[in-house]
UniProtKB/TrEMBL annotation:
Keywords: Membrane, Transmembrane, Transmembrane helix. It comes from Pelosinus propionicus DSM 13327. This is Uncharacterized protein. It comes from the Bacteria. The chain crosses the membrane at residues 15-35.
Amino acid sequence: MTHKNKEFEWKNNPIVVFAGVLAVYTAGNSIITLFS
């Protein structure tokens, strides 16, 4: 298995995608709260 295939699988892992979205959402809310 090449590195590219492994990266492709990692990006298609729903749990990883969900965790990433959740992290970005939480960070975004923190920044908005900080500046408002």
